[in-house]
Amino acid sequence: MSHGLMVLILLLPMVPTFWAIVDVAYRDFGTLKKKALWGAFIVFVPCLGGLVYLIFGRRQGTKIAE
Fold first, then answer.
1. How wide is the angle at C-alpha 43 spanned by C-alphas 25 and 4, nearest 5°?
2. If you write DSSP's letter for every residue of 1-66 in order, what string do you get?
3. How far is CA 29 from CA 10, 14, 40, 46, 48, in A?
4. Phi first, then psi: what are they for 32, rounded to 5°?
5. CB under 8 Å to 20, separation ≥6 — which residues?
6. How far apart are CA 49 and CA 16, in angstroms?
7. pLDDT tens-digit series, residues 4-57
8. pTM confidence score
9. Domain limits of the chain?
10. How far are the Cα atoms of 9, 40, 61 from residue 36, in angstroms, in the given order?
């Protein structure tokens, strides 16, 4: 197995985590506490936290107008 493929397989589960971190930054959750809790959950529970946020948490926040 090539090193590039191995790196891809190891980094692929982290994609939802990175996506969720960026998404939390651009959403309004009503209070800073809710936003911080989602951010902490995503960071401290890496792969699962990102998936849970994308399934459940994303609906709770509203997109901040640019």
1. 100
2. --HHHHHHHHHGGGHHHHHHHHHHHTEE-SSHHHHHHHHHHHHHSHHHHHHHIIIIITTTSEEPP-
3. 31, 23, 14, 21, 20
4. -65, -30
5. 42, 49, 50, 53, 54, 57, 58
6. 9
7. 888 888 888 899 999 999 999 999 999 999 999 999 999 999 889 999 999 998
8. 0.80
9. 13-63
10. 30, 6, 12
